[in-house]
Description:
Bound molecules: pyridoxal-5'-phosphate
Number of strands: 13
Structural class: alpha/beta
Radius of gyration: 22 Å
Strand order of the largest sheet: 1-7-6-5-4-2-3
Shape: globular
Largest sheet: 7 strands, mixed
Amino acid sequence: xxxFGLDEYEVFALLDELYAKDTQYxxxxxxxxxxxxxxxxxxxxxxxxxNLGDPGLFAGTAEIEQKVVRLIGKLLHGxxxxxxxxxxxxxxxxxAVRAARNNRNVKKPNIVVSESAHFSFDKxxxxxxIEVRKASVDDVLRVDVESVxxxxxxxxxxxxxxxxxxxxxQIDPIKELSGLSEEHGLFLxxxxxxxxxxxxxxxxxxxxxxxLSGVTSMVCDxxxxxxxxxxxxxxxxxxxxxxxxxxxxxxxxxxxxQHSLVGTRSGASAAAAYAVMTHLGTEGYKKIVxxxxxxxxxxxxxVRELGIEPVIEPVTNVVVLNLPEVNYVREKLYQKGWVxxxxxxxxxxxxxxxxxxxxxxxxxxxxxxxxxxxxxDIRKH
Length: 381
Ligand code: PLP
């Protein structure tokens, strides 16, 4: 820090210079986040100083947080679920597994996840010193329930189902996992960080939430398809007992205990999530999901005209294209300003049809994709 500060104009000149280096969402096809809704931004600003880590000081904001938990609970058929707002799916997954571990006295605990799981489970393995067993997937990239069962032993404390996988947007067979977890007396945590604000609004019905009696906890993030501000995740437990396993005493705060992983927490995020959920209602979210799914169908139809197939028929608004020389194609597209991403297994080009994507933007992208794949360059490459 310099001894004397700059005036606001100079500070913003510095900030603007760096902001200009950020990629604008209008070229981003690789992100599960998007522009927050304007009402969320407004609410976020109003509550900018509120700290949920000290809820006695911010009683109104603490009430808002619980209202958001109830709204998410209602969406996921868990009206009585207990929970709190996290920084996102990673924190939610860590805390859910931590609660499962604290619930059982197992010396060398393990959990079983799909090999398609988000990398937060690798962090969990390291942080909590829990073995993370990876089950194989079926031909449409859902976790294989037989493979899951074969990995369960006396040290297994939880199964994980994913509702909206990060790479393929696929939904695991949560109903079967629910049955399996009840049969073996295990926690079943459903990672719906992305899918939680998508799956309830799809035309096709999926059993994936607290309506299944084996589901013990879920994550569902407002800062992804919920149109909230970053950072906002939701962590919900079916039973209050489970969240109690996360309790720490907080001697010098206005509350006596805390369940969250982090201490100081954004009240602004809670206000933003409440504002947008209350403003949009389920009809509003349905319109957004319809919009994203129409873009998804449009993309698939247009790439098929170019002879390109998706790796799986999209289930949510994630499309993965089966392309030869995918990294070369992505690089060429990047030079034209498009940011795409890649999947691990099978390898493909991953495109997420978020609300910031428009049909015009998509058509411009497809036109560039066509140029890249028909260029002599790619054939020589
Ligand atoms: N779980 C799933 C299914 C995700 O897609 C993601 C992120 O994309 C996460 C967890 C991690 O969420 P976050 O980045 O908010 O911590």
